[in-house]
Amino acid sequence: MNPSSLMPRFTAIFAFLIFASITGFSQKIAVENLTVEHLVNPFTIDDAHPRFSWKIVSNVKNTMQTSYEIRVGLNESIEKKQVWSTKENNDQSVLIPYSGADLKSNTRYYWQVRVKDNHGNTSKWSTVQFFQTGLKTEDWVSNWVNVAGNDTAASSPMIRKEFNVRKKVRNAMAFITSKGLYEAHLNGNRISDHYFAPGWTSYKNHIQYQAYDLTNSLKTGWNAFGISLGNGWYKGNIGFAGQNKFYGDTRALLFQLEVTYTDGTKEIFITDDTWKSANGPILYSDIYNGETYDARQEQPGWDRLGFKENSSWKAVRIIPKGNEKLVGMSGPPVRKHETFKPVKIFKTPLGETVVDFGQNLVGWVMLNAKGAAGTKISISHAEVLDKAGNFYTTNLRSAKQTNQYILKGNVAQTFEPHFSFQGFRYVKIDGYPGELTADALTAVALYSDMKTTGTFTSSNSLINQLQHNIQWGQKGNFVDVPTDCPQRDERLGWTGDAQAFANTAAFNMDVAGFFTKWMKDVSADQLENGSVPYVVPNVLTKRDAGSAGWADVATIIPWDMYLAYGDKGILSAQYPSMKKWVDYISSVAKNDLWNTGSHFGDWLFYRPNDDNDGRAAVTDKYMIAQTFYAHSTQLLINAARALGKNDEVSKYEALLQRIKQAYVNENMTANGKLASNTQTAYVLALQFDMLPEANRKQAAERLVQNIRDYGNHLTTGFLGTPYLCHVLSKFGYDNVAYDLLMQESYPSWLYPVKMGATTIWERWDGIKQDGTFQTADMNSFNHYAYGAIGDWMYKNIAGINPVAENPGYKEILIAPKPGGKLSSATGELQTVYGKVKSSWTLQNGVFKLDVSVPPNSTATVLLPNTDRKEKIGSGDYHFEYKY
């Protein structure tokens, strides 16, 4: 087409935009969505220089902040007790550090902001928000306590104490943590909607505590606290080697309640040997195996005032403090989210009663039941039915995933687990008294409380289901740590899965706090020599570390989060870990060639069952390792440059040149062919710029030919898949990328969709074409790694891209690439500056594009099938032309 044909239409559009801008000058601006360290009104800020962020609201186009003013005080009327203020003439609105006098520990500070824009508008002061600093070591005056004697019982202990709050309360904060999991009640009610507290961290290094504002819950006079403990990750079964008590054999509670009365006096209530403990109705609780609850063992009112303790209640014992550090919670808590009612209750061919909730999810089932005392009801969980339609649990390996409830009498009861969760779509019910109806069952999804930030839809229903599956794979596996799978006897923080999916994760949800928390554990569990474990928190051995593409999580996720959120702080915090990892590789490399160590390689690449003609796409593991050596070195250079470490930039740039030359010498023929002639080999070489410029075009051609040779099918595994379509687009083969995306037969992204998947599978053919299953010991149906294609869908189909030079979407590249017979696609992303939108339609030869850019950001729009490039500011824009 002739690009000049665009001009009349563009002129009309921009004339309209200019008019809209002029008429909008009278509009005011405002600030909203205030956060501190990515969190809203956080209670446990440990950082001495917490960072403030906000979003600007304005309907005036091309709005940029020109100055901001922040003030911080000790009272909601900030100006009366102001401790710090700053006024700066710049456009920063994300992660502005506090730089006043030292903050006091365990203190609530209030803050607000106002801004001025480039149109002369000044906002009102924002609503007042707060943050509370955490406790220092010396602030903890409480004691760790546990049951009397050795903690050998399988049941969950209940621990209680009544306190006399002698005066009217101005403020009351409870600080709680545990070794194991805890659930806390005050006067008969849960004190929060958090689950699986205190969360899973590298317990030997640090344990999180939570802070709860009980000002409006605490009564003047006597109050009762009741706290139950579960084994959780700390003491229960963990990993796939049958280990338990990995972190310790004793569950323990640490509780500290600090009350400020209206007269200004203070009082602290602690755990000590005056607390009492007894076993309760939770007879057994385990992350993998489920929970057994005997309602006959309930002690009604045990967490309420005036409860009469019987002889089973014994004084707790104080246990010594360990070496682990107590840290404030820095990520989002796990909460309940979506609920599902049964879509079908049926009998299987084996005669079992099975319930289908229609969605593979992670959480548990709430059960309503009424029956004779001693009636035992079992709820078993599974992801799929077998070919015959029977309940299938072989792929769970040793994980039982079964909850058992024992009724206490002929009264209506509602049951749900406390310290266990399950991955499932189907449940099998045994022993239910009477007729089982849909009213008796509700499935509840539980995952870390990350706000949905991105949406993607298109004109293709299969692609839309793929996006749905990607999102639900993320929800099910982001339960405090990024697990590989949520159902079998594993559920570990596999580093390779997390790094492969991190970019997609940041499109779908706000994962800034989630990954900030987890990366602290990556650093904490990094070995002394710089190697990084396969799983974090590390529950394997020190030998289980250093695999290429897994250990590179140390460099990949910090950089990805920097691009997504503009967070230089995570780069700074993780930089020592990044450097240690690259230096470790250098220490084991020989002549700049990383050809040592144990590696997973391109995990779960395409391997046909009967490989007589050598169709398996095997990529040399050391060849892969060398590309990730280069990639991590490049990311370290990027981080050093962003942090102003110029001497280290020069040092590692020289290393990077040697790494790439060593790769070429070892792996490329004189004609440009790679030693492993696979899709993954060419993808990684091209993605990480391993080849001389003159050899890249032919390498891309070889990649395309390989894809064609496999009938437009991918053959990549965990390491090649995330970059496959990106490389094709980078070298002008968008049509081939679309061919792969739209492929419906195995192996492909849409094959599981066509087979009825509602999440991403671990294997391309978890369910084979004949309806049988892949290898049972490694066949999860909720495994998000292959969902990394979502990153390409957002960036290339919708066309929403960050720009590294101005990260966090301060500057945006909008570059949609229609294809695959799609007639429309829409992507939206709630960035740290506000909503970005790119929505296009292609009908009757006319391309229409609608773009939204948030205030305080700018964008460059690359219009497909033209050579036009439009630079725009904030606001809504429409482009339309013959395509």
By DSSP, the count of extended strands is 43
Shape: globular
Q: Which radius of gyration do the C-alpha atoms yield? A: 29 Å
Largest sheet, strands/sense/barrel:
10 strands, mixed
Q: What is the number of helical segments per DSSP (H or I, 4+ residues)?
A: 15
Determine the N-to-C terminus distance.
Answer: 7 Å
- Summarize model confidence as the mean pLDDT: 95
Poorly predicted sequence stretches spanning 5 or more consecutive residues: 1-27
Strand content: 25-35%
State the share of residues found in helices, binned by percent: 10-25%
Structural class: alpha+beta
What does this structure look like?
- It contains 15 helices and 43 strands.
- The protein is globular, with a radius of gyration of 29 Å.
Key attributes of the depicted protein:
883 residues, alpha+beta, 10-stranded mixed β-sheet, 6-stranded antiparallel β-sheet, 23% helix, globular, disordered N terminus
Topology:
Elements: H1 7-23, E1 30-36, E2 51-57, E3 65-73, E4 82-88, E5 96-97, E6 108-117, E7 129-132, E8 144-146, E9 157-165, E10 169-179, E11 181-186, E12 189-190, E13 206-213, E14 221-230, H2 232-235, E15 252-261, E16 266-270, E17 276-279, E18 282-286, E19 290-294, E20 314-315, E21 317-319, E22 325-328, E23 334-340, E24 344-347, E25 353-369, E26 376-382, E27 384-385, E28 391-392, E29 402-406, E30 413-415, E31 422-430, E32 441-448, E33 454-458, H3 461-477, E34 478-479, E35 481-482, H4 495-508, H5 512-525, H6 553-565, H7 568-588, H8 621-642, H9 646-667, H10 679-687, H11 693-709, H12 721-730, H13 734-742, H14 750-754, H15 789-798, E36 800-802, E37 811-814, E38 824-830, E39 835-843, E40 846-853, E41 858-862, E42 869-872, E43 875-882
Helix pairs in contact: 4-6, 4-15, 5-6, 5-7, 6-7, 6-8, 7-8, 8-9, 8-10, 10-11, 10-12, 12-13, 12-15
